[in-house]
Amino acid sequence: MSSEQIRLNLLQQLDAISSPDDAVTLQIALAREIQAAERERSEDNDWHRHLLRLVGDALTRRVLDRHTIRVLGQDRLRAAHLSSQDKDFEVVLNTARDYASSGIMPIVSDLTHLIATGDIIAVTNGHIHIVECKNRQASISQPRGRHLRQWQRAQQAAKYLTHGHVISNQGEVKVSFDVDEPLPPLDAVAKCIDDAWADPKGSALVDIGDRDRILAIWVRDLPVKEVVGHLSNDPAGWTMPAWAWFSQAVDNPDPFRANPYNLPMSADYRAALAESELILAHFVDLGVLEYEGIHGGREVRIRVYRKSGSSHIQARLGERVMDVSDRFVDQILFDFMPLPGVRSMILQMLDQVGDIDEQTPQEEATEWASPTVNATHSFVYPSSPFDSEPVAVSSLGMLEQIGVAVPFDELAAYAESNNEDITLTAVIQRDGNAWKLELVEADSEEYLTRGLNSDN
Length: 456
Hints:
Elements: H1 3-15, H2 20-38, H3 43-63, H4 66-72, H5 82-85, H6 87-101, E1 105-108, E2 120-124, E3 127-133, H7 145-163, E4 165-167, E5 173-175, H8 186-198, E6 203-209, E7 212-218, H9 224-228, E8 241-245, H10 247-251, H11 267-274, E9 278-285, E10 291-295, E11 298-307, E12 310-317, E13 320-324, H12 327-335, H13 339-353, H14 362-366, E14 374-381, E15 391-393, H15 396-401, H16 408-416, E16 423-431, E17 434-442
Parallel strand pairs: 3-14
Antiparallel strand pairs: 1-2, 2-3, 4-5, 6-7, 7-9, 8-9, 10-11, 11-12, 12-13, 14-15, 16-17
């Protein structure tokens, strides 16, 4: 079977998912295909692995919102090599099976381009759990090295998603804000593709908004002039024209760029778009974003400029000048969001950040924070010093978020009654239909639970 047919079959399997078990079955199939392609390095196999992970991204985007994906995807450098992980990766897949059998949707991070935090993201309604899988017995020693970095990164992500703000390891306050995203005119994009399919030359140019148009080309081995020569793309009156090939979103996936496998069209069309058998070009006038006037009681100016061949957005609030994230340009060019809607998003964001600057006290800045989802984190081990059964190790603060009552006052009183520092490890075990919390005093340094400090 050709690689193209394998990918189409997996796309159809993605569309048929109706349960966590179905999702795990798809991800195991993706893993086996990626591992097979890793055995022999070639340009075709590299591209095959890339598109397989794009299918993994499509599943991820069906269960997680783009802001959560962005937070969990920070610091991703390159896709993991599955075969070199050997039995460690099998532990990850088995843990994903366990979650799915409990009705929890697992996303295996290494089968995506987009997720860089945790081995598994376990998703339930209104809650995500960041899971790091370890193929060894749990220890009560303090995490170090890579283990510690994984812990810190996951803790930062979980706190940021849960509370809408976090203090980074560099001491910076990060705050998230809610903005209303406009709906992209995907029906108009699909119509352009249909028109191109019906055209003898395989091309169509359609306006999908004000100064916003799509060119669709089906590759039929015709001369370029014959394919597009009959189309008129006159940008008369445009003040800041910009354009991009949609293939850039395929080559460089991002939460703010559309995934071809998730667009509302037939599986054959989506596969053709990913395989470059269907080409899309997007032409817009970014000048529509520009604004100057009084908004929210403040003098506001939004301008678009070019630097090093790329388009960027800058905003002025009174005397303050700030750069606006390039994600907004990406959402226009690669996610087809309408220009007036994106301008409204930027103005909405400026409303919220207008009173915040580098001198704003942390307490005031975090009042504006917008939590995204209740997020927790743990390490999962096949056994522990206390039991031969699998065990999840988390902080007491994380456990509080899922409803475990932690007696912090009693722990503090117990600590004060001792003449020297002590370390307690909390073990939660099922006792019938209830969860039982046991505290074990350890001789070594405190581990992840940090039970004596409620701030942790």
